[in-house]
Prior knowledge:
This protein is 43% helix and 12% strand. With 290 residues, the chain is α+β, with helices and mostly antiparallel strands. The chain is elongated, with a radius of gyration of 27 Å.
Amino acid sequence: MSTQVTEQTETETEEQTEEQSPGERRREKKEQLQREREQEKSDLLDEAEETVELKIFRYDPEVPEKEEPRFDSFEVPFFEGMTVLDALIYARDTYDSSLTFRHSCRQAVCGSDALFINGKQRLGCKTQMVDLEWPIRIEPLPHQEVVKDLVVDMEHFYEQMHAVEPYFDPDELPDGEREEQRQTPENREKVKLSTRCIWCGACMSSCNVAAGDNQYLGPAAINKAYRFAMDEREGTDRKEDRLRIIEQEHGVWRCQTQFSCTEVCPKDIPLTEHIQELKREAVKSNLKFW
Length: 290
């Protein structure tokens, strides 16, 4: 008897599905996914011993009712080892799929998820929730145009990076196809830290000079110039040209040695020290003895 009822129910369901329009089937599937998502959210919150409140900056210039900047609050479960990026992904997937932010590698390599977290520039994927005061306030990087929510326009930052012409131009090329441009271990150590830059923009965002001078090259671009200018494989004339670029009005001399860029760099690059060393190199290159 039960088998007959089951078969009859399945037949009725199939007939109902066939009678539904494509739009109705999509709507039903969407509602089912929503119910499953709500259940997953409920299960995670039940399993978590603690929950954390996120206060997230929201802004969408393309939607009239969302074009006024505001903060939305989201309650997320807290688990050991959870990062701010993990929490953002949970909030987006669980509460609001329109929540917009950048992320990629989740290993502090791509630099795409630099954010202003509890008043400091940090990488979302590297910042542990347990190390922060709760509730956690998450904003886009300051001093940059906000595109939507936590996403900022990085175009100006990239332009400054390219302005220092970040590529080698040696005096001589190696002889033979298999020859290399050799670098001593000592010189490699000198420039090693400068090569760690992941173009996240945290340093530029923290810099008070950059906030007031839109033409200032900024710590990241000057560090990129340092990486090549201090490399012994760099051509002599090319190094002089590069020093001319970074010693211009909006170059190294605008740095006020506040160390804010060094403090927020997620790769621990001594940016301020590199800027000061380039200042010394610029002075030496202009000294003439007859």
